[in-house]
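Workshop exercise sheet. Pairs work together: one partner reads the sequence aloud, the other fills in the structure field after running the prediction. Swap roles for the next sheet.
Pair: D.N. / O.F.
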Amino acid sequence: MSAATGSDRGVAAALAPPPDATPPVRHPEAPAPGTLLGAHYDQCFGCGEDQPHGLHLQARAGEGVTVTAEFTVRPAHQGAPGLAHGGVLTLALDETLGSLNWLLRVIAVTGRLETDFLRPVPVGATLHLQAHCTGVAGRKIYGSAVGRIGGPDGPVAVRADAVFVEVKLEHFTKHGRPQEINAALADPDQVKVARAFEVNP
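Structure field:
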């Protein structure tokens, strides 16, 4: 196998915590291990309950700064006939990695994500996802995730490394469409309002 190019090494370095990164620390008020995290926003294509063709991905808090999640590939998620679209698989990894921020209790958005596709994922298969935070450096939060088929210990089908960037609530209110922002903020359930802006859009 040929050596990685300078460009390849640059991508890998950008997604690895720098030497001065600190280990992630689970927030004292983070959901307990085993807790189902639920949707952060009902219209989110990754986890929202009100998206008819969304992934309806359900993440669960793990030990430390880890999460697990599952989603079953439906016909609306296919690219090639009978197989999950690569973009949908990337979305599943991104959504799972974004759920790590719930355990750190920060608002963060995806800054960069690189996905490796190792084997096809057929329609009807359940993707079992595992993600962990690998380090924190200033506003940057680093993480890795894998998706397995055939069970939580099955063969790895996809994997990703990512860096998230911590932001303030104004990131969403400044850049989102006013009707959705206002509707979310006007919800009388203030816990639901807070959750809508907790993880990556």
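Discussion prompt: Residues 6 and 162 are 19 Å apart (CA to CA). What would you look at next?
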